[in-house]
Specification:
About 55% of the residues lie in helices and about 5% in strands. It has a 3-stranded antiparallel β-sheet with strand order 1-2-3, with no helix packed on it. Strand 1 and strand 2 form a beta hairpin. The protein starts with a helix and ends with a helix. This is SIT4 phosphatase-associated family protein. Pfam families: SAPS. InterPro entries: SAPS (IPR007587). Belongs to the SAPS family.
C-alpha cells in the first residue's frame, strides 16, 4: 500500500524539467509525456509554450528543413511534437500564433516557390493550418483575405495532397465550414480560384496535379458556396474544362480527370459513394439524377469530340493477355467516356437523348460491348446505359435502341456464337494454337434480356417488337427460361436458408440473421452454460469463480453463438435418441435394484456420475411424469451409455440443450440423496428412511448433509468426483436444480452406496 501511494505521488518528468532554473524547449520536446501534459492543460507548461519565442521556434521546426548534419530527433521528432502541440487545440497557444502577423508570415513561408517542400513537413503544415482554420476561423480568414497571394501559391502546390486539403477547406468546400462562418468566407467567391485550379490541367503534365485538381473541383461541386457553385456549373467553365481535356498534346490523365469533374457536376453524390454502392447505383434502374440544364448544354457541345476518341481502328498499340491479345486495349480514357455517357443518360434530359441519337453514340457504345467481351467495367456501364434507355419515357430513344441499334438480334447472335471470334481485324483476338474461349459478357446479356421481358409486360411497343421476332420467342422458351431457373439461387437445395426473402441484400451480408434460429436465446442459454462451467475443461476453480459473476459480465454475442449452431441443428435427432433411452430405461431397470425398488427408480431422476474429473453429468426425465410440466434443462451426451453402477462407457463428445415444461406439482419430495420422488405424497416409511439416512450421513461426516454438499462444491478437491452441475438456471444456486434437486457427489464406500439405494428407493 505504501508503494502504491508513493507511486501516485511521483512527479511528472515534465514537471521535473520545469523545476530546473535553466531548461530549453528542446528538453521539453524530447520528453515523451509532453503531449499528454498539454492535453491535460498543465498550467506551468502551457504558460511556457504560449510565449512568443516558444511559438516561433515550434513554427520553425515545422516549416524549415533541418540541416544535413543535424540529429534525427531534430529531423523527425521535434517537427512531429511541435505539430502535435498546436493540434492539441490549446486556445491560448493558437491565439498567440493567429494574432501575430509575423508568426503567420513565418508559417506561410512554407508555400513560397523557392522554399523546399518536403512531403513530411507539408503534412505538419497542413495540420496546423487546418487547425487554425477550424478553431480560429474569423481571424485566420481575415489574414488570408489580406494576403490573397497565398491562395495562388497554394494552387501552385496542389500536386501535394496535404496542400490540396488546405485548399479545399479554404475555398469553403466543407460541409459545415461555410454555413457557420459565411461572412468571413464570402470574399473567396469573388476570387478566380476555380479558374486557377482548372488551368492546372493545361500548365502541368503531372498526373498527381491532375488528380488533386479534379478532386478539389469535385469537392466544390458538392459543398461549395453558392457563388462558386454557380461558376463551376456555368457553360463557360465547362467549355474551358473540355478545351484542356480535348487538346491533342495533353496527356490522357487530363481527359480522365476532367470527365470526373463533369460526372460530379451531373451527379454530385456519385463521387462520395464507395465502389459497392456505386455499382448498385448503376444497375438499380428507375433512379434518375437532376442537373442544371445549362450545365448539360455546355457538355453536349463537346460530345461529338468525345465520341471520336471511342474509335479504336486507328490505334496501333497491342496488349498481350492470357486469352489472346487486345489491339488496342480499351484504355482508361475510353472507359471514362462511356461512364460519362451512362451518367448523362440517367439525367433524363431530352436534349441529351436527342444528341446521343443524332451522333450514334449508343450504337458505337454497343459495338464496344461486343468488341471487348472481357472488360467487366465496360459491361457494367453499357448495361446501365441500355437499362436507362429502355426505361426512358422517350419513345424515339427506345425505337432507336431496338430498330437502328438492333439490340435483340445482337443478343441472339452472341448467344448463338458464344465463342471468341478469330478475326484478326477485331480488337480482341484469341491466342493462336488454342481453342477460342467463351465470351465473358453472357451474364450481362441475360440480365438485359430479362429486362426486355419485364418491360414488355408494361410497354406495348416493346411487347409487339418481341412477339414479332420468332427467333426471340424460341430462344426465350428453350434457353432463357431454363437459364433463369438454373440461376435462381432461391430455389437451390444446397443448404441455403429457405426463409431468405430479402432479395435486395447482397449474399455476402450477415446471412446468419436469416437463419431459423433464435440467436439471442441461444446466446443467453450458452452464456449460462459457460457460466456454470458445463463446457469447461479447465480447473474447476475457474468454473467456481465464474459463478460469482453477474449476468452482465457473461459476454456471449451472436457471432459466438454461431460457433455451436452446427451442433444445435442436430437437436431433433438427439431428442429422438433421448426418448429411446428413456424408454429403454423403463424397460431395462438396473440389475442392482430389487423388485420393490424398480417402481420407485423409474420415477426418479437418474444421476450418472463418472470417475473422470472432467465428466459431464447426464440427467434424463422419466416419461411417467405424464402431464407434469418441468422447466428443466437436460444435458445429454450422445455417446454415453447409462449403466446400473452410475458410470459411463465414454466421455461425452457433444452436448445438447433442450427444455421441457415446468412442474407445478407440489407433491414432489426432495430426498436427502438429491433425488426426487414424483407422484403422490410420501409415505411414512419413506420419510422415516429419509430421516435415518440423513442422521447416518451426519454421523459419518460430523456435519449435516446440506453442509457437506456446500463444502464439497466450494472445495472440489476434497471430493474425487464432481458435483452434479445444474442446468444453468441463473436464478438457482450452484447445487440446486430447477426442480429443487440437490446435487450430490458419488458415494465413496459400499455403505454409502447402500444408504443411497435405501433412501432413493
Amino acid at each position: 500500500m505504501f508503494w502504491r501511494m508513493a507511486g501516485l505521488s511521483t512527479t511528472s518528468p515534465v514537471e521535473t524539467i520545469l523545476d530546473k532554473e535553466n531548461f530549453t524547449l528542446e528538453e521539453l520536446l524530447d520528453e515523451d509525456e509532453i503531449i499528454q501534459e498539454c492535453k491535460a492543460l498543465n498550467g506551468r507548461l502551457i504558460n511556457y509554450l504560449r510565449e512568443r519565442a516558444q511559438v516561433e521556434q515550434l513554427i520553425r521546426y515545422i516549416v524549415e528543413e533541418s540541416p544535413e548534419d543535424s540529429e534525427k530527433r531534430r529531423t523527425f521528432k521535434f517537427p512531429f511534437i511541435a505539430c502535435e502541440i498546436f493540434t492539441c487545440e490549446v486556445d491560448i497557444i493558437l491565439k498567440t500564433l493567429v494574432e501575430d502577423e509575423e508568426l503567420m508570415n513565418l508559417l506561410f513561408s512554407f508555400v513560397e516557390p523557392e522554399h523546399p517542400h518536403i512531403t513530411l513537413l507539408a503534412g505538419y503544415f497542413s495540420k496546423v493550418v487546418i487547425c487554425l482554420l477550424l478553431r480560429k476561423t474569423v481571424p485566420f480568414m481575415h489574414y488570408i483575405q489580406a494576403h490573397q497571394d497565398i491562395v495562388k501559391k497554394l494552387v501552385d502546390l496542389i500536386g501535394i495532397t496535404s496542400i490540396m486539403e488546405v485548399l479545399i477547406r479554404l475555398i469553403g468546400a466543407d460541409e459545415h465550414m461555410y454555413t457557420n462562418y459565411m461572412e468571413a468566407m464570402q470574399w473567396i467567391e469573388g476570387t478566380d480560384v476555380l479558374e486557377m485550379i482548372v488551368d492546372k490541367f493545361n500548365s502541368s503534365d503531372s498526373p498527381e496535379v491532375h488528380v488533386n485538381a479534379a478532386e478539389t473541383l469535385c469537392a466544390t461541386t458538392r459543398f461549395a458556396p453558392p457563388g462558386l457553385s454557380a461558376k463551376i456549373s456555368s457553360p463557360s467553365f465547362i467549355g474551358r474544362l473540355f478545351r484542356h481535356a480535348l487538346e491533342d498534346s495533353r496527356p490522357k490523365s487530363v481527359l480522365v480527370n476532367s470527365l470526373s469533374v463533369c460526372i460530379s457536376l451531373l451527379d454530385p453524390k456519385r463521387q462520395t459513394l464507395g465502389m459497392y454502392h456505386t455499382y448498385n447505383r448503376q444497375v438499380t434502374q428507375g433512379s434518375t439524377v437532376t442537373a442544371n440544364p445549362e450545365t448539360i448544354e455546355g457538355m453536349l457541345e463537346s460530345l461529338s469530340d468525345l465520341l471520336k476518341l471511342l474509335d479504336v481502328s486507328s490505334a496501333e498499340n497491342v496488349l498481350l493477355t492470357t486469352y489472346g491479345k487486345l489491339q488496342p486495349p480499351l484504355g482508361k480514357h475510353r472507359l471514362k467516356i462511356v461512364e460519362f455517357i451512362s451518367v448523362l443518360v440517367t439525367v433524363g434530359s431530352e436534349a441529351a437523348e436527342k444528341e446521343l441519337i443524332r451522333l450514334g453514340a449508343i450504337q458505337r457504345i454497343l459495338d464496344l460491348f461486343f468488341e471487348y467481351p472481357y472488360n467487366n467495367f465496360l459491361h457494367h456501364h453499357i448495361e446501365s446505359i441500355l437499362m436507362s434507355c429502355l426505361e426512358s419515357k422517350n419513345a424515339p430513344l427506345i425505337d432507336h435502341l431496338l430498330q437502328e441499334c438492333n439490340l435483340v438480334a445482337r443478343i441472339l447472335e452472341a448467344e448463338k456464337n458464344n465463342k471468341l471470334e478469330t478475326d484478326s481485324n477485331k480488337p480482341t483476338v484469341p491466342a493462336e494454337g488454342r481453342s477460342p474461349p467463351r465470351i465473358g459478357n453472357i451474364g450481362h446479356l441475360t440480365r438485359i434480356s430479362n429486362k426486355l421481358v419485364q418491360l414488355g409486360n408494361s410497354s406495348s411497343e416493346i411487347q409487339a417488337y418481341l412477339q414479332e421476332n420468332g427467333e426471340w420467342n424460341e430462344w426465350y422458351t428453350n434457353v432463357l427460361s431454363k437459364q433463369n431457373a438454373v440461376e435462381n439461387v432461391y430455389q437451390w437445395a444446397c443448404g441455403r436458408p429457405t426463409a431468405l426473402h430479402d432479395r435486395t441484400r447482397d449474399s455476402d451480408d450477415d446471412d446468419y440473421q436469416d437463419r431459423d434460429y433464435d440467436v439471442a436465446a441461444l446466446a443467453n442459454n450458452l452464456s449460462q452454460a459457460f457460466r456454470y462451467g458445463i463446457y469447461s475443461n479447465d480447473d474447476i476453480d475457474e468454473a467456481h469463480g465464474s459463478l460469482e459473476r453477474d449476468d452482465e459480465d457473461v459476454y456471449f454475442d451472436d457471432e459466438s453463438a454461431e460457433v455451436v449452431l452446427s451442433s444445435l441443428r442436430l437437436g431433433d435427432d438427439q431428442e429422438r435418441i433421448a426418448n429411446e433411452r428413456s424408454t429403454a430405461s423403463l424397460a431395462s431397470p438396473s440389475p442392482n435394484t430389487e423388485g420393490d425398488d424398480v417402481t420407485n427408480c423409474s420415477s426418479d431422476d437418474n444421476v450418472v456420475i463418472g470417475e473422470d474429473d472432467d465428466l459431464v453429468d447426464t440427467a434424463t426425465s422419466s416419461p411417467e411424469t405424464g402431464t407434469k410440466s418441468e422447466n428443466t434443462t437436460h444435458l445429454m451426451s450422445e455417446n454415453s451409455r447409462e449403466t446400473g453402477d452410475g458410470e459411463t462407457d465414454k466421455p461425452p463428445e457433444w452436448v445438447e440443450w433442450r427444455e421441457t415444461s415446468d412442474s407445478g406439482d407440489p407433491t414432489d419430495v426432495v430426498l436427502p440423496n438429491g433425488k426426487t420422488q414424483v407422484g403422490s405424497k410420501p409415505s411414512e416409511s419413506d420419510v422415516a428412511e429419509s430421516s435415518s439416512s440423513t442422521n447416518e450421513l451426519e454421523k459419518n461426516d460430523g456435519t449435516s448433509a446440506e453442509e457437506s454438499l456446500v463444502s464439497t462444491y466450494e472445495n472440489p478437491s476434497s471430493d474425487p468426483s464432481k458435483q452434479e452441475l445444474d442446468n444453468g438456471n441463473p436464478s438457482l444456486g450452484p447445487t440446486t436444480s430447477s426442480d429443487g434437486v440437490m446435487a450430490e457427489g458419488a458415494p465413496e464406500t459400499e455403505d454409502d452406496k447402500k444408504d443411497v439405494n435405501q433412501t432413493g428407493n
